[in-house]
Specification:
The structure holds 2 protein chains of 2 kinds. Chain A contains 6 helices and no strands. The radius of gyration of chain A is 13 Å and the shape is globular. In chain A, 54% of the residues lie in helices and 0% in strands. Chain B is of the alpha/beta class. Chain B folds into 2 domains: 2-125 and 183-229, Rossmann fold, CATH 3.40.50.1820; 126-181, no CATH class. Chain B has 7 helices and 9 strands. In chain B, helix 4 (126-143) packs across helix 6 and helix 5 (150-160) packs across helix 6 (171-179). The longest helix of chain B has 19 residues, at 211-229. The two termini of chain B are 32 Å apart. The chains are: A mainly alpha, B alpha/beta. Chains A and B meet through helix 2 and helix 4 of A and helix 4 of B.
Chain lengths: 111, 233
């Protein structure tokens, strides 16, 4: 799996590029979420970009097991500067891309 | 590549186990002890780690990657292991291999001997590592219709030990992971993922490889070795 420099430019790993708590939800969150999913699933940026609201995640993709989901949520927390509580994690938010995006957007607004 | 074994130093009357040691050893000047990523990340990063070692070998640097007792091919139970114990055991390997530097991957940074100069790649501390393992267990439980909380699991784990992501941890390991912060990297230079030109392979749901990233990491190590050998540069 080769890296994608375009994605790296928009979503970095440095402290300096970490988004602030005041980050607005919407397009940025969606792009970031797709990048994290591409990193976790090992798929190309274009394939991640094709994810739609009803695209199935947990329970639909065999490789996305509980360990991968835990890593995914931790990475989302790190890159967005949010905290996801265990009791907020349920089947509905993890089942589809749209569900996860709605949840993360709400967390960004909250933070 | 040489596939051999090493014997973790035994404590007291306990007999030492024999553990796997993969090395590139031509008795060269620079001999890097590679400390693997821990637990599930050891699997996802194994191929990457070996790729880094091959790249170091191609640049004239020896390296050795030990199995930690209880991990990978080891026959001894994880339940008996702890960070303290691993550190003690690795001290013996530093001597027997004649390591001149250490390269620690992710959680392996918690085990890096302060006596050796070296690097820690995308270092991970105990609380963060433990938090992800606990989260995986809680997610798994919720999927199965059970309700578990990290707090309750930890409370039990500190006394009884805990099974996380298939690893059967003893109470000592749970307590150590909960409290183990990374030492200030006075002798170990931090190598951030951002310098490797791609996302960390530990994020992958399934093991993957990336030769470009492996070469990038090896090149950083080689360049630092070169700088150390020639302080005027």
């Amino acid at each position: 799996m080769s890296s994608n420099p375009d994605v790296q430019d928009t979503v970095g790993f440095n402290e300096s590029t970490k988004p602030s708590a005041a980050r607005a939800p919407g397009h940025d969150t969606e792009a970031l979420l797709k990048t994290v999913l591409a990193d976790v699933l090992g798929i190309a940026a274009q394939a991640a970009d094709a994810l739609e609201a009803d695209s199935g995640l947990f329970g639909h993709l065999p490789e996305l097991d509980s360990m991968a989901v835990a890593g995914l949520l931790t990475e989302i927390e790190d890159r967005l500067g949010i905290v996801i509580e265990d009791d907020e994690v349920d089947g509905e938010m993890l089942e589809t891309f749209g569900g996860l995006l709605a949840f993360v957007d709400a967390k960004v607004v909250e933070s | 590549m040489i596939v051999g074994t090493w014997s973790p130093a035994s404590q007291g009357a306990e007999s030492a186990s024999e553990e796997l040691l993969v090395s590139f050893d031509q008795s060269r000047t620079h001999r890097v002890l590679i400390l693997p990523a821990l637990f599930d990340e050891a699997n996802t990063l194994r191929r990457f780690t070996l790729s880094v070692m091959r790249a170091l070998d191609a640049s004239g640097v020896d390296s050795a990657l030990p199995d930690l007792a209880g991990m990978n091919e080891s026959l001894v139970p994880m339940r008996d292991q702890s960070l303290t114990r691993w550190r003690t055991q690795l001290g013996g390997l530093v001597e027997s291999f004649g390591a001149t530097q250490v390269l620690a991957m992710r959680g392996g940074a918690m085990l890096a001997p302060a006596s050796l100069p070296g690097w820690r790649y995308a270092a991970l501390d105990g609380p963060k590592l433990l938090a992800t393992l606990l989260r995986a267990r809680v997610v798994n439980a919720r999927e199965a219709g059970r309700s578990e909380t990290r707090e309750a699991l930890l409370e039990e784990g500190r006394v009884m030990g805990l099974r996380l992501a298939g690893w059967d941890f003893g109470a000592k390991m749970v307590c150590e992971l909960e409290n183990e912060q990374l030492a200030p990297a006075s002798s170990h230079r931090a190598i951030d993922q951002s310098r490797l030109g791609g996302p960390g392979l530990w994020l992958r749901a399934e093991p993957d490889e990336d030769e470009d990233q492996a070469r990038a990491l090896a090149d950083i190590v080689i360049a630092d070795i070169g700088d150390a050998a020639d302080p005027s540069s």
